[in-house]
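Inverse folding, one chain.
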């Protein structure tokens, strides 16, 4: 099976993320959306990791092609000891183990990371797992940082489940 992997903190999930997910959906049999993060990351306090996972799962609840999972960063302190490539090698190993344990992927599956970030593309291409990487051009170049900086005026840039949550919690 051809499986697309789309990861992020999704704090919040926005239309730019949907551009990447939709490209993966067109090219792959299945897409796995991986919500990542840790306590105190850029999603806090409004978007704790568990809430991001819950909202992403709600967003794709009726989409038979998209599966959502959560992968907490277990050791944010690792950044003090390893270079960027070592961190990404470790993270990809953890992510693959997580996906195997959740039975979301099998050894024979063809995997491809989907991202719109140039830095991520290079780091992923250099991991020893040799997973294909598709660097996508987003139709809507929006960022979570931009949205978090002006939540009030950025609601329409978020996907519906996140938009609804923000409206309820402002």
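Residues assigned per position:
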């Amino acid at each position: 099976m051809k499986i697309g992997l789309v990861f992020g903190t999704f704090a919040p999930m926005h239309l730019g993320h949907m551009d990447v997910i939709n490209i993966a959906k067109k090219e792959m049999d299945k897409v796995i959306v991986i919500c990542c993060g840790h306590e105190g990351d850029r999603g806090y306090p409004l978007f704790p990791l568990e809430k991001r996972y819950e909202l992403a799962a709600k967003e794709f609840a009726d989409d038979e092609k998209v599966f959502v999972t959560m992968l907490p960063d277990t050791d944010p302190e690792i950044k003090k000891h390893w270079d960027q490539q070592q961190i990404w090698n470790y993270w990809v190993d953890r992510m693959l183990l997580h996906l195997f344990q959740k039975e979301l992927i099998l050894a024979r599956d063809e995997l491809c990371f989907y991202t719109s970030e140039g830095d991520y593309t290079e780091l992923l291409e250099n991991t020893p797992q040799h997973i294909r990487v598709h660097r996508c051009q987003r139709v809507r170049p929006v960022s979570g940082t931009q949205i978090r900086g002006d939540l009030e005026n950025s609601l329409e840039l978020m996907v519906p489940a996140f938009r609804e949550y923000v409206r309820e919690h402002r």
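The two ends are 42 Å apart (CA to CA). The beta strands are 2-8, 30-37, 66-72, 110-115, 132-135.
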